[in-house]
Amino acid sequence: MRQRLAEVEADVQGLVEAHMETLLGVRFLASEYCTGLRHVGRIDSLGLDENGSPVIVEYKRGVDAGVINQGLFYLSWLMDHRREFEHLVRDRLGVTAAAQVLWSGPRLICIAGDFTRYDVHAVREHRRSIDLVRYRYFGNDLVGLETVASVTGQTRASRRVRRRAGGLQVSQRRIVAMTELTEAADEVLLSLADGVTRVQRKQYVAYQRLRNFACLIPPQQTKVLVYLKVDPKAVELVPGFTRDVTGLGHHGTGDLEVQLRTERDLERAQDLFRASYAAA
After folding, report:
1. Using CA atoms, how far apart are residues 156 and 161, in angstroms rounded to an integer?
2. Torsional sign, CA 165, 168, 170, 174
3. 3-state secondary structure (DSSP) of residue 68
4. d(CA 254, CA 152)
5. What tens digit of pLDDT does each residue of 162-211 get?
6. Helical H runs in 57-139?
7. pTM score of the predicted model
8. Exposed, middle or buried: residue 244 (CB in 10 Å: 0-12, 13-18, 19+)?
9. How far are the Cα atoms of 97, 181, 213, 250, 278 from residue 193, in angstroms, in the given order?
10. DSSP 8-state code for residue 137
């Protein structure tokens, strides 16, 4: 099918804003948001992602070297106007969402017809969370988004260190074992692909490349829980290992719960991790 760019930039913006949660995992807040007389600018789109991180989305029809710098300019404005943003979230999404805004990880998503290798290098050298996303129209009614580069301003977890369990009480050894299993799962999730980022929230750690694909819950006494963006009806559920949590309240995002108790469980969960990454 023939690929093409949009006729005008506004077509891309309108399409993404109308389906922002489906395409980007971001709840739409505002379009063409005015930054005031001092900054004299308009942010293309403002949103809030699945983890509560503020999101700025900037669009360009084709290749434009200025899109990243423009987005970073607005991101700087956003960090200086946190209360204004929180008021916007409260008005659009409610008091609870406004109280849970995560200011440690604001994001910039640049959507354009294409990017140069200089653009990709620039974002990898920057300390902000930035996603470069290429769009294409296919025929008259299909659009595709492809992540070209994804970086995070937050540091990855350090490599785990094997702890000595000898001499500890049974309960202490169990805590050590679950902590090590959590760290091992963290390594596996981060290594699924280049550009996977982690977002630390109080109740969970989210793993994303543009959208969440896994949420890791802090270790419990005997197990580690991971929630995935996999349709539970598409997998064979195994009691004690996988569970359908569709419609059930839990921290993080995803309808498939994976329960890890041993390194063996982590090994057999890796196909599910990859399937969730592909689906998200």
Report:
1. 15
2. negative
3. helix
4. 22
5. 444 455 555 677 888 899 999 999 999 999 988 888 899 989 999 998 89
6. 67-80, 82-93, 95-99, 117-124
7. 0.79
8. middle
9. 30, 20, 12, 26, 10
10. E
